[in-house]
Amino acid sequence: MENLTETFIFLTAKFFIFYCLLFLIGRSFVLIINKDKKIDNKKILNLDSQIIYPIFGLIFVGNFLVFFNFFFPIKSNLTYLFFLIILINIKYPLNLNIFKKTIAKFPIYITLLISSSNVYFHYDAGLYHLNNQMLLRESNIILGISNIYGPYGVGSIYEYISSFLWLDRSYVLLHFLSLIFIGFFFEIIYDLIFNNEINYLKNIGISLLIFSIFDNFGYSGGRNGLIYIQGIGKQDVAVAVLFVFTAVLIIYNVKNKKFDSFNFLIVSYLSLFIYQLKVSGVMIFSFFIFYVVYLIKEDKLQKIKFSDFLLFSTIGIFWLLKSLLNTGCLIFPLAASCFDQFSWSNEQNIKVIQDISIGYSNSYNFGDSLVNWFKDYTAINMNFTILLNYTISYLIIAFVVFSKTTINNSTVRNKNFSIRTILFLNILFYLNFGPDPRYIMAIQILLIALIGFNRFPRVNFSKQFLQFLFIIAVVSFVRLDSYRNFDFFYHPNYTIPEPEVSKLYDRTFPKDGDQCWANIECSPNRDNFTITESKYFKIVNLDN
Predict the structure, then answer these.
(1) Residue 298 domain-assigned?
(2) Mind listing the pLDDT tens digit for each residue in 335-346?
(3) Which of 167, 268, 275, 413 has the fewest CB atoms within 10 Å around its CB?
(4) What is the largest distance, in Å, between two alpha-carbon atoms of the chain?
């Protein structure tokens, strides 16, 4: 008889508990930020509000840990206090029918769990993610942490959440974290197609569904810009999924002239969370500003009270303060946002990190030859493959599957012009920031989603056919190798490698390559730095 803890059943049960906890924490958090406690009856993008509960569970956990780490290391047992928020669900009981509707979509996650059989740590996990998480676990906030190694200064909220999830030393919870966002993506598609009666929202779901099917076909085996199962530790998929959802939600609310304080709060927290996940997600604020300007013109923003945004403002202030203490910058590594008054702020080092970050991603410098840049960009096989397959997928969906636009209303045209302008600005930003496939997933998928706003399918797809396509999309999303390696009597255990290191100054340096993994005595940084301890903080300064 096999040990139950070594089977796929146990893995599924573990994920189920993980998901349910996030669901209940998220519902509690939404209850806190919303005055009307009947949140289960609310609609977001014409979908039941509970679809966002697990995401808001992560928003709460992440920001609790950011605040907590100002004073304590994350490995402290006091971190478990955040679970107390679940008790709010006792005061405002959950309708079990709503929970059942959510669990009914759980087969999506069970299918995605098969990916656990052969996923492994992303390269960047060994480069800086795991070491950064180890530092968060072992110490409260470190002043000048970016001087230990530049990427530590980015300090994604994903790192804070992940550092807590080390409580399971199989590290499978780190993979679960990624699956929450992927499952959320497919839940959105499913609900848009099958659980709403607004045609253009259904069309968005259909366009995304077909795009996900096309990801399996094309040049070099496919890969067209759809989200994918990243190596453990990366948050690019999380950013892409939330970016698309939030942008579509904003556009829907504006186009539908829909306003209520609940939706505005949801958009606000999601926008901030996207930025907290990754600095490159900052362009979500271009859509957020568009939303705010619209509300001002319609005299609807005045209905929002400052007290409704007190918690939101506090979270934003603590996030900026965290960045300032970690790096000396409000936005790291944007040199223009940095202050040289702090002992741990090194202007020259920050500019070097900024240039490396931009240069690494094949960014385009405006004024240079666009043709030469494009040749260099597409000379990278992965870039060429995704760009070619994406272009073909877009053209087929926009002009073969869907018909031409049919809405000629001048008001709609004006809004569409504003949206296209924002999209163009986003494209320019990512060209300059770096159009790495991991970074531009969001804008690529969003462009696909928006096909359904003003177009309709040439064929009336039956519900049964769409359900069949959805099953194919979810099943084929998991790599074939995962199915080959799948063993029902196996529970994954991701072992963190121990790097060989050499002595460097008063610390160590990787003998080969630049990955320190989870060795906090090690840094790929070749410059010397000094760590001193004050009464409350550790301070890291670069030696001149």
Answers:
(1) yes
(2) 888 888 888 888
(3) 167
(4) 70
Q: Parallel, antiparallel, or unpaired: how do β-strands 529-533 and 538-542 relate? A: antiparallel
Give a yes or no: residue 499 inside a domain: no
**DSSP run (H or E) holding 476:** helix 463-477
b/e sequence 363-381, b meaning 16+ C-beta within 10 Å: bbeeeeeeeebeeebeeee
Integer Cα distance of 118 and 164 in angstroms: 23
* Count of structural domains within the chain: 1
The angle at the Cα of 159, spanning 158 to 162, to the nearest 5 degrees, equals: 85
Strands 501-504 and 507-510: antiparallel
Q: For 502, phi and psi rounded to 5 degrees? A: -120, 155
- Distance, in Å, from the CA atom of 280 to the CA atom of 292, rounded to the nearest integer, reads 21
The residues near 450 (Cβ < 8 Å, ≥ 6 apart) are: 204, 248, 251, 419, 423
Average pLDDT in the 139-144 region? 95
Q: What is the dihedral of CA 372, 376, 379, 384, to 10 degrees?
A: -80
pLDDT tens, position by position, 244-265: 999 999 999 998 887 888 899 9
CB atoms within 10 A of CB 178: 26
Task: Tell me how far apart the alpha carbons of residues 350 and 329 are, in angstroms, rounded to a whole number.
Answer: 9
Question: Is 533 part of any domain?
Answer: no
Give the CA angle between residues 344, 349, 354 to the nearest 5°.
120
Take residue 372 and report the two structure tokens written for it. Answer: 């030469």
Q: Which domain holds residue 39?
A: 4-485
SS3 state at 222:
coil
The predicted-structure confidence for 354-407, as pLDDT tens digits, reads as follows 877 766 777 888 888 999 999 999 999 999 999 999 999 999 999 999 986 655
- Which three-class secondary structure state does DSSP give residue 246? helix
pLDDT higher than threshold 90 for residue 453: no
Query: Quick check: pTM over 0.90?
Result: yes
Which pLDDT band, with edges at 50, 70 and 90, does 1 fall under? very low
Q: Considering Cα of 378, then 380, then 383, then 386, what sign does the dihedral take?
A: positive
Within 8 A by CB and 6+ apart from 12, the residues are: 110, 113
- The secondary structure of 498-530 as a DSSP string is ---EEEETTEEEESSSS--TT-TTB-S--S-EE
Encode pLDDT of 55-108 as tens digits.
999 999 999 999 999 999 999 999 999 999 999 999 999 888 887 888 888 999
Task: Tell which phi-psi region holds residue 336, choosing left (phi > 0), alpha (psi between -120 and 50) or beta.
Answer: alpha
Distance in angstroms (rounded) separating the CA atoms of residues 359 and 245: 29
